[in-house]
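Worked example 4.2. Below are the chains of a multi-component assembly; read each line carefully before continuing.
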Amino acid sequence: MTSESVQTFGAPSPAGKLRDWAFVVLLAVLTSVGLVVLAALLIDTAIDGVPSLSFDFLTSFPSAFPARAGIESAVMGTLWLMLVVAIVIIPLGIATALYLEEYADRSKWWNRLIEVNIQNLAAVPSIVYGILGLAYIVRGPLDLGRTVLAGGLTLSLVVLPVVIITSREAIRAVPPSIKEGALALGATQWQAIWRQILPSSIPGIATGVILSLSRAIGETAPLILVGAATFVAFNPTGLDSAFTALPLQIFSWISQPNEDFQSLAAAAIVVLLVMLIMLNAVAIWLRNKYQRRW
Amino acid sequence: MTDPEKTPEPAVEQGEPGQVPPIAPDEPRAPVAKVIHHDVIDHAIEAPVFETEALSVAYGGKPAVLDVTMKIPQKEITAFIGPSGCGKSTILRCFDRMNDLIPSAAVGGMVRYHGVDLYGGDVDAVQVRKRIGMVFQKPNPFPKPVYDNIAFGPKVLGMKGDMDEIVESALRRASLWEDVKDRLKDNAFGMSGGQQQRLCIARALATNPDVLLMDEPCSALDPISTSRIEDLMHELKETVSIVIVTHNMQQAARVSDRTAFFIVDLSAGEEHRIGRLVEYGPTDRIFTNPHDTRTEDYVSGKFG
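Applying the procedure described above to all two chains together yields the following structure tokens:
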């Protein structure tokens, strides 16, 4: 190639420019489909629900009269469930993740079996866990009845695989050189894990736990199966108490013919969404605050 | 892989010193594979800190380094040099049983630390590592404050005494105290690479080891940081024995008292790269009057 021909690069072709532009527009339109649908849903719900929102709505029990009905027992039920789920999934999830990442010998078939099963369990529909909960937790061997504990344990089963998977990822994100450094100083494997690897992976694990809780908050199907009541005019008093939960309350009001109940359902959805957004905001905040480049 | 029948037997079983599998026994052993143990047998090193006998390491049954016999003297700097894959880091990692972390690794032959067989049946690898410090290729401080980085080792060891004093003395020995005395609570990740590496040295010194193993400690550092670490090594050898693996021949010539030269032995075929110790002796002799032509070629820059 001579230097003369190099001097003439030529102008960009108008057709090429148009194609580039059209592609960007296409991507933007496709992106906005999801966002617009979501926004429409949120706005519609807010328009229906916000007028019914009031302090009384939050602090009243369900009632046959729409004007007096509220969601206190549902919110309290949901909080109780979250408490049980958190207490169950945090130790179980972290312990399983630590075993699989730090101790399990992958050349052994049973460890690979556990791994594959956990991956698959994460994709099992939640209603299947509901059946399991009904058969083994509400009735069957545990025979806990339709209590907060039974509901919480069932929801824990639903989200446990996700907690394990995200915790494993958080633990794996700690570079092996950290563990090597600790072991080279004469730490035992337990000390290296407990004092270096686990503290370094806590932000990632916490993010996974919170996102799992926010999934558990919205679960309805398993709770219907384990027989949570939909009309509960009292707050749970303990683990052995009957309970309802926000998604169940919403489900129950939606199925009422009275229009006023429909707007109560919309109001309850707004409350549920606010709780979800708060949880996710904490998760994002945690992730950004402790994000580390190794 | 070739025909499995031809593959050498899994290198060596533990506790059978000298049982090194023959490599391609049918082929006449080229003079290249002949290992000369200069200074190892002839000039006895008094009270060596480490002593190896026919030390061999295999990964997944494939020999990686074979038949290393040498004595590492106390309170000197011993450098391991040689081309990539010659097994110098692998041998270094035998000295504090870091190879135990690789499940497929098998160590054969003998390593003695002050006369004690490191791979003896009743020796706990954790106890070995408490006595022997190690610094890695890439600085690996813990993502914690400077203070906590240093204090971790002494805490794990259950060392008694004033922790502030232990931390200060370790940082002083690594000539890092003046740099960090006002930011002991700052995260170690905010330090420069050279400071991080000196922090890792200080961390290793905090438990008062009598040996410091350094696995290419300067390969990720700039020349100024490198020279600071080399100065530091000169100061440290008053109190600790140092074994350093380095890619950098000039560094070995500058810092070390003794140099061991390893090669990659390809006489068993291209797919069997086996590290071997070729020559070991006082650094000035290795660099000015090597006995082995391969050492000469390497130190004069003809390969490697």
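Take a moment to check your reading of the output against the notes. Residues 297 and 303 of chain B are 7 Å apart (CA to CA). The interface with chain A takes residues 96, 98, 101, 103, 126-127, 129-131, 133-134, 136, 138, 140-144, 152-153, 156-157, 189, 200, 203-204, 207 of chain B (CB under 8 Å).
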